[in-house]
Amino acid sequence: MATSFTEKYDSRTITTGSDGAAESAEFVYILRGVSGESDARVLATNSTAAAYGALQRRQIEVKPIHIDTTNADACIWDVTVQYGQRDPRDEPEPGDPPVYSFDTTGGTQHITHSKGTIHAVAAKGFAPNFGRAIGVTQNSVEGVDITVPVFNFSETHYRSPEVTTNAYRHAVFLLTGKVNSSPFKGFAAGEVLFLGASGSMRAGENWEINYRFAAMPNAVNLQIGDEITIPSKKGWDYLWVYYGDHVDENAKMLVQRPVAAYVVEVYDYADFSPLGIGT
Asked: How much is the pLDDT for 88?
C-alpha cells in the first residue's frame, strides 16, 4: 500500500476576529503507510503549506491511531496542523521589508596637496612656496592621510531558494567591486561602490542576504595648488598629482610644485539592477 495523506471531512476550523480577519486555522489529516513517528512528522511537514493566507504554520501534532512495526502499510496517524498569526520572532519570508543600516564614519584618503596654506614661516627670509604640496622633502612629496566622507550602508533581503540560484549568486559575485553606472538608492552615477554580499540559509528555508555598499560624492572644480582646477571627478575615480621642480624666486631655491593633475578610472562601471533589490 502506498503512503497517503488525506484531509479529513471535519477539517478546516477557522477562527476570525471582530474585523473578520482569520486569527487561527486548524487542519486535520489521516496519514497512512508510515511506521516511524519522525518519518510521519517529515511527511506531514512536506505535505502541508507553511502559510494559510496571512497565517503562519505554528504547530504540527502527530498522533498514532494504529501502529504495526512489522507492517508499515497498516500504520495510521492522525495529523493536526495549526496556523496562527505571525509572531515577530518568526523567520523572515521572501518579500518581507528589507533591513537597512548605515554609518558615516568616513574613509581614509592619502592626499599630497592642501586646500590652502595658513602660515608659512621661515627662519630667515622667505619660506619656500610649494604650491600647497604637503610634506615636501628634497626629492618627493609625502602627503598625509585624512578622513573623507564615505557613506557605508547595507541592506538585508530575504529571498526564496527558487530565485537565489547559482546563476544569481554568480551575478552578484561579478558585480562586486563595480561602481553604479546609473542612479542608485538616491546616489548619482559614479558614487556607489558595491562591496559585495554575504548570504546564509538553513536547509529548506529562505536565504538571508546582506548587500554592502560605500558611497563617495562626485565633485566639481577641484583646486590643486594655485594653478590647476579639475573640472569634475566621479566619486570612485582616483585623483593623483604630478610634482616637478620649480624655482622659487623669493626663497631662491628649487622646490616641488604641482605640475599636472590626473583623474583616472580604477573601477569598472555596471548596472546594479541584477541584484534585484531595487534602485
From this structure: 57
